[in-house]
Every structure is written in structure tokens, then in C-alpha cells.
Amino acid sequence: MPNWLLPENIADVLPSEARKIEDLRRKLLDNFRSYGYELVMPPMLEYLESLLTGTGQDMDLRIFKLVDQLSGRTMGVRADMTTQVARIDAHLLNRRSVTRLCYAGSVLHTRPSGLHATREPLQIGAEIYGHAGLEADAEIQELVLASLALAGISQVRLDLCHVGVLRAIIADDDSARNQDAALFALLESKDVPGLMTLSRDFSVQTREALLALPGLYGDATVIERAREVLPKLAGITRALDELALLVKQAGDASVTVDLADLRGYHYHSGAMFAAYVPGLPNAVARGGRYDHVGEAFGRARPATGFSMDLRELARLMPGAERKQAIRAPWGTEPALRQKIEELRQAGEVVIQTLPGHENEQDEFDCNRAVVFENGNWILKTLG
């Protein structure tokens, strides 16, 4: 096998694409900061127990594992940064007030998460800790839509759901609660025959409500239909009220509600969302409320947030224009070096041509040159 081949779903990022990704990263982080989010940088490696806190079996299968030669303990390469940031809030910062944190960095997956997806996403996201009210969820949703707008994306479909609906339905039915993992899988695939078989021994109210969930999908009117067909339970009413408020806060985004789409059911604790955009088969951003993750780190805090893959997002953006640059000869003359330094200090890109070579690059268009004329180094426009 040629030694230049990379593993499946792993790829280099070449100059023009790398610049798009980096420019977008800076834009998004600067925008997060304008909302008051503080940047944190968790490590690539942690002990496996910490990475798996509150994430369930699914994350266990996605994490690359290795043995730490110093301690002999099993370590993992992070597949997601959300739990790491929750650990920082709960254990290291330990603040009493609301804390807003953001992050950006590579994560690694054992398998691609979707069609044509990379196994090394460049994850960026933001989290709010310390506020249990829906105001925090609305801010996170606003931040997602603002991030997509900064990437030049105006057509966004926001899919909303809420784990509180299913939890309220099965709360008083022991048989149903004992089958929550199987129920989650059947609802996610909208397997109505499977639901009918599994729910034979459930109470009539629980069974009818579960069978109604796969059909409760569509535009915002789904919320009112759900109020009519689902039991009048406090948990369901609260969940539907929260979804209705988030729909109103969605701005120009197209909104769908799917009460059976419960990806992350064991991880999340409230409203969840996924953002879809033209040109990508997978969700470009996912997020929601996860109030219980910090418990394992000794401090449970209300929490909500989102993350997205910068690589996927950048692929949707038009190619970056070549940056205008200046070509200069290589030399040690003080006047030449001073001229080049002055241009660079003024924000110009100055590329010195090394002896015997022509400059070849995709990123820069050398439309000017530093030339020696009449005893001075001057800047001249090239034809």
C-alpha cells in the first residue's frame, strides 16, 4: 500500500479550503465572544471514564481507545467536546453564576457519523451553564442561526423535538419504563408495527400515546395536534409549551416538529434541535438541553448548547477569492528589507521569490511587485 494513502474518511485539508475553514472559525468565535462566551481548549486525550460520562453506549463505540503508558489506565481520543466542557464548568471553574463557554477543535470518530462524513470533524460549539429557563435554549437557538448566517447560509430548516414528551408518557407505566431503550429505537425509525408489538402489555393510555408519536411530524401545527391527541399530562404540556416558544424564536428559519425524533434521548433532558441546510445530507448543527451531565463531576448544573462541524459548513461556502499580494526579490539590502517590512506592517502580503524559483500558489494573486528603479525600491503594479 502506498505510504501516502490516508485511512478511509480521513483527509488532508488543502490551502484554499483550509483558509475558508480558518476564516469561518475566527468569525464564529468572534461572534460567540460578542454574546459573552469564553473560549476553552480541552485536551485531545482523557481517561475513558470522563469522556463517557452521561453519553451512553453510542459514544463508547465512537471513541478510539488506547492504554496510557504512564498510568496503565485506558484513555480515549475525544469524539465530542461537550462532556469535556461540562467537566470544566463543573469541576474547574466552579462558578455560581451563569457561565457561557465556547470551543473549537478536532475530534475523532471510529466510524463516520453520516453519509460522506469525515471521521475527523472540526467541532465548534457553545454552551450555557447555570440557567434552567427556556431563555438559555432560545439564546442557543439564536446563536446557531446567527452562525449559519455568518457562513452565508440563509435557507435553514430547524427540526425541533423534546424528550419530555416521551418521558411523561412512560413515567407512570413500569412496563414501558423498563423498555425505554427499545422504545427509543422504534420511535427513531418510526416503526409502528414494532411499537404495537412492544406495547401490548402497556396501559391503554401509554400505548395509544406511543402509537401517536410517529405521526406527530410536520410544521408548527404539530404542536396543537399533539395537545389534542396526547394525554393531558403536566410534563407533556410543559414540553409542548417550550417547543411553541422556540418556534416563535426561529426567525426566518423553516421549522418542523418531530416528536418521535429522539436522538440523544439518554443524554438530553429537554428541548432538542437539528439544523439542516441545502447541500448536506446530514444535520449541520445539533444541540439541546442536557442538565444532568455535570452530576458525575460532582456538580449538576442546568446546561444547554450546540455544536457543528466547521469542515462540513465550509464546504457549502463559495470558493475563497485569491488574496492580492506583492512579489519581491530575495535580498539582504537594508533598503529592500525595510520596504518589505513596511508593506507587511501595513497589512500587505509580501512573497519573496527565492533564487532560481517561480512562486506557485493557489491562495495569492501577485498583482504588484517591489522593484528597484532610479536608486529606490518602489511598489509597481503588474500588467
Textual characterization of the structure:
The chain is α+β, with helices and mostly antiparallel strands and 383 residues long. The chain has 3 domains: 1-154 and 277-320, 2-Layer Sandwich (BirA Bifunctional Protein, domain 2), CATH 3.30.930.10; 157-275, Bira Bifunctional Protein, Domain 2 (BirA Bifunctional Protein, domain 2, 2-Layer Sandwich), CATH 3.30.930.10; 323-381. It is built from 14 helices and 16 strands. The protein has helices at residues 15-34, 48-51, 56-62, 82-93, 134-150, 163-170, 174-177, 180-188, 192-198, 204-212, 221-229, 234-248, 310-315, 334-345; strands spanning 38-39, 45-47, 64-67, 74-77, 99-106, 122-129, 157-162, 217-218, 254-258, 271-276, 285-289, 303-309, 323-329, 350-353, 364-373, 376-381. The strands form 3 sheets. It has a 9-stranded mixed beta sheet with strand order 1-5-6-12-11-10-7-9-8, sandwiched between helices. It has a 4-stranded mixed beta sheet with strand order 14-13-15-16, covered by helices on one side. Helix 11 (221-229) packs antiparallel against helix 12 (234-248). The longest helix has 20 residues, at 15-34. The protein starts with 14 loop residues before the first helix and ends with a strand. The mean pLDDT is 91.
